[in-house]
Amino acid sequence: MPDSPLLTAAAVAVIALAIAVVVGVGLKVLRSFRDLGTDAERATYKTLHAASEAGQHLRRGLNPAGAAKASRQLRTLLGCEALAITDTTGVLAWDGAAEDLKPRLMELAAGVLAGGRTAVLPAGAGQAPAGQAPAGQAATGPDGTGSRLAAVIAPVRAGTRVVGVVAAFAPSAGAGLVRATGEVADWVAVQVELAELDASRSLLMEAEVRALRAQISPHFIYNSLNAIASFINTDPARARDLVVEFADFTRYSFRRHGDFTTLAEELRCIDRYLLLERARFGERVQVSLRVAPEVLSTVIPFLSLQPLVENAVRHGLEAKEGPGHITITADDAGAFAQVTIEDDGVGMDPAQLRAVLAGHADGDHVGLRNVDARLRQVYGNEHGLVIDTAPGEGTLITMRVPKSQPGHDA
User: How far apart are the first and last CA of the chain?
Assistant: First the structure.
């Protein structure tokens, strides 16, 4: 073809450009590594990077998948021939050589698991005597890899419990390896405790959501069904509509998946709740709603707004003579979504409110305490409920949540 030389030249130019880009990126990475300065600085960077990588794999505690990936990074930290991680029942991960010792590791680690003290075993200590190897395994012979390595087995403690061990294998077990293995085991223990803390927080949130559902169940469902029943003969069409709203409300409130929802979904739940309450109270309950569209997709803890509105109805307006008004607003406050729920009801004594939020008062207002505790657990103490109230002055509740929450899915 007549234009083939041009095509060839263009292809060569593209290849040359690609090579130049790759070389440029490589030089940039090399320069950034050299920018760390001394050998000690580079060694520190490698150590911190390896620890960071390993920590990501142990975020869910001691399990085979995470331990297997973390063991590679931890063996790099210790510079040993092999590294193993166990729990109290078996070997979770083994990285490196000397796998002929793996069948006996739990036996070697039994004393560490029982007593919580680091064990140092000389080379050959892990060798199985002839004829005494586990079924299906050959005994370690005099030339086996494991017989040439010493071992340091350090306990992994979570609180007062020994939950596993870290075992490092090297030609010799000097004081440096013993101390380093102990430090690595302590670091693994911290990751395990953090994982257990996350799990306990999740369980606590689930328990608190169950408590909120239990609060909804006895009084609201009974009253709503009574209100619906009152319209069956006088206004069947409205009774049918209320049944649908009641079904949608209970389906949302008693769903079994997810700790989070969106502000839009929670507001829809509140709308159904107020429709049912207005069927019971009539014009005594008046509602104003103002929502900025840009905050509707904000993720919030499941059932965190509905209990606040229910508190306004039950404890603010129900005890008030004549009509009452509830104002719900959701505003864009920069990096946060700010939601306020205000009623002009009977209010409450600030000292009583402090006792309720501190968990020193049982019975009424459990929804306020529950929501406040969940917000603090998820976002930190600075994101608890802000409540302004006084007897006869109504109640204003403010909630602020971050609009960006990468770790939370609705």
Answer: 59
What tokens does 249 get? 């409300």
Picking from 339, 322, 320, the residue whose alpha carbon sits closest to that of residue 331 is 339
More confident residue, 362 or 384: 384
- Highest mean predicted confidence (pLDDT) among 144-158, 188-202, 240-254, 295-309: 295-309
CATH H superfamily, domain 36-130+139-197: GAF domain (3.30.450.40)
pLDDT in tens, 48-91: 555 555 556 666 678 888 888 888 888 888 889 999 999 999 99
Q: What percent of the chain has pLDDT over 90?
A: 31
Q: In this structure, which topology does domain 232-402 adopt according to CATH? A: Heat Shock Protein 90 (3.30.565)
Beta strands in 29-144 (DSSP E): 82-86, 91-96, 119-121
Q: Please tell me the pTM assigned to this model.
A: 0.52
Closest CA to 298 of 374, 372, 378, 409: 409
Dihedral, 262, 268, 272, 277 alpha carbons, nearest 10: 80
Q: Running DSSP on this structure, what letter comes out for residue 232?
A: T
DSSP 91: E
Structural domain boundaries of the chain? 36-130+139-197, 232-402
E-strand spans in 292-363? 299-301, 324-333, 336-343
107 exposure class (CB count in 10 Å sphere: 0-12, 13-18, 19+): exposed
DSSP string, 117-186: --EEE-TTTTPPPTT-SPTT-PPP-TT-TGGG-EEEEEEEEETTEEEEEEEEEES---HHHHHHHHHHHH
Helix H or strand E segment including 386: strand 386-389
pLDDT score of 395: 94
* Secondary structure (DSSP) of 124-143: TTTPPPTT-SPTT-PPP-TT
